[in-house]
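A further point concerns the way the authors explain their paired sequence and structure data. Showing the layout once, in full, would remove most of the difficulty. For illustration, here is how one protein appears when written out as sequence plus structure tokens:
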Amino acid sequence: MKWMPWREWFEGKVWRDDAGASLLEFAISASVLLSMIMGIMLISLAIYTHHELAEVARDATRYASVHGNTCSVSGSSCTATATQVQNYAKSLEYPGIDGSKLTVTATYSSYPSGSSCTPNTNCENPGDLVTVTVTFPYSLGLPFVSSRVLSMTSTSAMVISN
């Protein structure tokens, strides 16, 4: 048999060296680690968006609370209907929340009994309760997982002040 130095090097060095295994282990570990970091960042962004949605609900409830049926500024009425509360909430600009995708529901009830109002009954008086519910479709796309739409909801209630 003929002496072949490349064959000794190939059989001894390449087949017994662990450099390739280390590279493969690093690639697998790095992809798992980066996926976890990306997932944590996206979940944190979803939590932040829910917090901002709660702010929208609070602001819209505050708007409805200070614009009861006895509200007047310089002799003119400044009362707010449920539609005006919806438009106000959709006009708010918070990061990560598209106002056109918001679903806003404003309901009035007599306070403290909590009974809902009939269409002929006026429950926008000072001392009555206004409740605003805001819903937002949040698109959550995690690495290696199919994208999902989460329906985030926040509710806020206040007593009408004027």
Remarks:
- Residues 40 and 142 are 9 Å apart (CA to CA).
- The first strand starts at residue 72 and ends at 73.
